[in-house]
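Sequence and structure are kept together here, with a separate record for every protein. A complete record is shown below as an example:
=====
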Amino acid sequence: MRMSELRELEKGDLIEKLNNLQRQLFDLKIQMAQGKMTTPSKIKQVKKDIARIKTLLRERELGINRGALS
């Protein structure tokens, strides 16, 4: 997921996507604990996507407009 794609979404959509990713991360951690995980790198990717969304939400909260800089 790219930041440019995320910047186009509204706050409600970002929060919904964040909740879905957090649920997905939880499920992946359970799979890892059970030894059923097929792609361990998926956890890393989901964590990065969560961080991107949280960063974007915080930027909007502070009124920072990074989209104009890129």
User: Anything to note?
Assistant: The CA atoms of residues 41 and 52 lie 17 Å apart. DSSP finds three helices and no strands in the chain. Residues 11-34 form the longest helix (24 residues).
